[in-house]
Automatic annotation (TrEMBL):
InterPro entries: Cbl-indep_Met_Synth_N, Cobalamin-indep_Met_synthase, Met_Synth_C/arc, UROD/MetE-like_sf. Its cofactor is Zn(2+). Zn(2+) binds at residues 653, 655, 677, 736. It is an enzyme of class 2 (transferase). Gene3D superfamilies: 3.20.20.210. Belongs to the vitamin-B12 independent methionine synthase family. Keywords: Amino-acid biosynthesis, Metal-binding, Methionine biosynthesis, Methyltransferase, Repeat, Transferase, Zinc. This is 5-methyltetrahydropteroyltriglutamate--homocysteine S-methyltransferase. NCBIfam families: PRK05222.1 (NF003556).
Amino acid sequence: MTAFPAATITGYYPRIGPHRELKRALESLWASRIDAEEFSRSVRSLRLDTYHRLRELGLTEDWAIPASYSHYDHVLDTALTVGLIASTTSGTDFDLGEYFALARGTTHRPPLEMTKWFDTNYHYLVPEIEDSTRFRARPQHLLSIVAEAKAAGHLVRPVLVGPVTLLALAKSAPGTATSPLARLDELTTVYVDVLAALAAAGVEWVQLDEPALVADSADLSDEQLAEAAAVAYASLTAARTRPQIVVTAPYGTLRAGLPALAGSGVEALSVDLSAATRAFDPEYVQRLRDQVPASVHLVAGVVDGRGIWVDDLDASLTVLTELGRESLSVSTSTTLLHVPHTVAGETKLPVDVASWLSFAEEKVVEVEALAAARAHGRDVRPAVFARAKRAKRTRAESSRVHNPEVTARTAALGGRDGRRCDAEVRRQAQLALDIPRLPTTTIGSFPQTAEVRRARADHRAGRIDAAAYEQAMKAEIDRVVRLQEDLGFDVIVHGEPERNDMVQYFAENLDGFATTEGGWVQSYGSRCTRPPILFGDVSRPEPITVDWSTYAATRTTRSVKGMLTGPVTILAWSFTRDDVPLAESADQIALALADEVRDLEAAGIGIIQVDEPALRELLPLREAQRPAYLDWSVRAFRLVSAQAAPGTQIHTHLCYSEFGQIIDAIGALDADVTSIEAARSRMEVLSDLAEFSRGIGPGVYDIHSPRVPSVAELVELIEAALSIVPDDRLWINPDCGLKTRGYAEVTAALANLVTARDAVLAARAPALIDSLR
Ligand code: GLN
Ligand code: ZN
């Protein structure tokens, strides 16, 4: 059997395609502009082009290129391949109708739930296991991908989510008696069948991903997961006909999982040794030396798969040497799904910034150079090593990166925790805002119409000038303000028409960030984002939102709420620095935003919302690291409004998560009003927030669905909220921003929301009068 390739990448290559070909194919298929056959043809050529390109970039050995394609999501693919989700597939591909029904739902059934893949911004589909589900090997799709590559001259390495991780990520369908992991034995036998089919097709290496073994799970201990892995891999490796197995453990360091996997009989183990990981677990290299026997081939993921910085190749080479073994390959720490395709297309980036970056293609070149250097000495790839050296030096010296004024300012903060005065003092001072009982407001954005998007694109392309652009935005603000007044909203927003994206907008207006033109990264399915790149110390050259908010204020006599994105969310949705701690960047952004708060206040804006929808997202996978994270993230949030006058009302907004784990941190944000996603869970979140002593706005209108909630339904939700939150603290608002919705449904839903609030108030009027006596 062939040895493991000396250079490889861990799993999925950015499958969306260099020019988002997959997105286009998917959207055309869904809109019936192309048929299934044409779809298959386009994704086939996307796959073959990818293999070809990877080979050009240096992955020339057999089995070095992972067969890492998915129409939509790799968790769904594996779940179908092992029958964790029942399917009727008989052909070589998945049944596309069935596949996309699972991914996106139909009129008759909701899609699978979607949630974040470990601590990344990729979202996977959560398989639901029924008691009645009989697992079954359905390797046809995988086999066809392998065969198709082989026909084109590439021996690619099939990749599956491993059995332990698959079950750890799955959930039980409602009413199911057994927990997913209780069915591990049964599932393992199906993996055995899949592996046998791959072996029969001539596959010599298969990759099984087990990131669940590096994360702390809410309901499974490290030891339980390790034990599960030991059992599962003992059965898998005992199978008679199978390819050699490489297990990957990306996104952090293995603990109990390390001896379990190393001793399980698998031929190769791929571990995350990226700079980030090394920084927080320096003993990992030592444990790998001690605990991985020579008989197990070690694949060292030294090139960071998630960040975008040029690798410090010399440092990586040192780590490779320190591992002290012959049987060693070089790889990326994680899949490259999290980074864009190539820096080459980014002609508008400052040249020095571009020279510091490695996206997927550049990372493949780095991996190959490290492997070549190990085999033949570092002089064999002089250009790649020279680029790495230069990047390290110029970044360290760059005045674009290091701004002494900024670092002095954060240093001067000392241990200040950013606390404002007592919440009760603030409440008294804020009575001057004259906010009525059960006030209505929205979360910020209004639907982004085609005209708004066109004006932005025209402005960017130079087809219209700044004045014309401003005109178009003001016209939209006029309309949004008028709509809110007509509907009877109490606290008015300007609607955020000028923002393409709540993070990118601030990144474009802050020094220290760069944005890309084509740096698309798959978020889920056909959805991609272009994360900004934080490369240096952050400062605010001039006010960002003040003109828009004050313009809105001139159009109404009601209170206007200013709208900022918080430091944690800006960091969570950007590529961040590896040369300073995240906490330092968070403080810098917080101080820049604090200046914005000061300017908004000075301009007469008395209510300011600082959105932190991603607060939960950055929570570390390891329990032990969570307190430190919550500490700096909460502190950064508070710094934004630390200097605000007591009479200025600070709002925050959170969404996208179960908040249970971070409920104390939400309290510690100390916002005067917190709006929070709640409609889907029918106000479940409120029981957690019962202790909360400040304003709270559990979303009553689920904006993730095109449905218009009825007045009756909204009344019920408001009453449910009132059973927990006293009526002088409850705010009435939607779940999230309205940006992705259409005006017709939004207008109807918001009208119902105000009507429902009025109805609740009217019904409570006698009680209210009583309480005033
Ligand atoms: N203010 C933002 C908006 O309304 C908040 C979006 C979010 O929470 N994701 O669009
Ligand atoms: Zn939200």
